[in-house]
Q: What sequence folds into this?
């Protein structure tokens, strides 16, 4: 265990300290193929893309404010009327 | 709304179980449908923000906005308030973070200001848009591994611990 960590450690440091592995163009290509929805639990989407996109926006605009929102008990506070309405509007029953 | 069938709950009252109470709506705890339903409910918010030209990223309930002007900030605040009122979601206005780019003026947002950086989706996001490896990650992992090694558990138990941690 110790040995393997020793081998992987420097590599991890090296890769994660630099910019995320996907380039901005790759991200945009991926987004063009899929409709705009949240990045989670969908094939082809992961946190790398989310972070790469966000950080590319900030770095390219060199201004502005980034807001990270925090929802209180997000999964528990969804009203059923709202869910019904969204699903009906999207054509799901 | 009827994904639960035959689910009952018992309440523990004065150290005695009550009669079973049928639960007729909602989804099971840990149901794989839950995140997908949540994605559906958050979609209108993201659509609205994008339609107003606000750059939005969402990973389930971890939403990040990039606001460039004061007008965008005002629009985003209104959209969020509308979403809160219509969907029942509660935004933690005090715990939400704003990361201003260096020298950026105040947009009078009702969020907590943080100038150095904030943890987002497992990395440290700095105000200049660069990401940083979280400090002490490897040291903590190594200490945890030493501790787990001493635990007297099966291989599948170890796998569960490691996957839960990662």
A:
């Amino acid at each position: 265990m110790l040995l393997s960590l020793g081998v992987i450690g420097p590599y991890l440091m090296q890769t994660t300290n630099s910019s995320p592995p996907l380039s901005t163009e790759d991200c945009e290509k991926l987004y063009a193929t899929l409709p705009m929805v949240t990045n989670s639990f969908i094939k082809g989407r992961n946190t790398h893309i989310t972070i790469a996109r966000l950080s590319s926006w900030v770095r390219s605009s060199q201004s502005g404010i980034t807001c990270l929102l925090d929802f209180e008990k997000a999964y528990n506070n969804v009203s059923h009327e709202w869910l019904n309405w969204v699903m009906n509007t999207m054509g799901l029953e | 709304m009827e994904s639960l069938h035959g689910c009952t709950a018992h309440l523990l009252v004065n150290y005695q179980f009550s009669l079973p109470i049928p639960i007729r709506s909602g989804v099971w705890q840990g149901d794989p449908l839950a995140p997908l339903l949540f994605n559906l409910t958050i979609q209108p918010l993201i659509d609205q923000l994008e339609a107003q030209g606000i750059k939005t990223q969402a990973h389930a309930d971890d939403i990040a906005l990039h606001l460039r002007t004061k007008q965008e900030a005002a629009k985003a605040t209104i959209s969020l308030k509308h979403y809160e009122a219509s969907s029942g979601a509660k935004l933690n206005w005090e715990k939400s973070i704003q990361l201003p780019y260096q020298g950026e003026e105040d947009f009078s947002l009702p969020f907590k200001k943080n100038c150095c950086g904030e943890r987002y989706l497992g990395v440290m996001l700095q105000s200049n848009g660069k990401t940083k490896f979280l400090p002490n990650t490897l040291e903590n992992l190594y200490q945890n591994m030493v501790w787990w090694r001493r635990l007297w558990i099966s291989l599948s138990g170890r796998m569960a611990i490691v996957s839960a941690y990662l």
Summary: Chain B touches chain A through 69 residues (CB under 8 Å). Chain B has a mean pLDDT of 84.
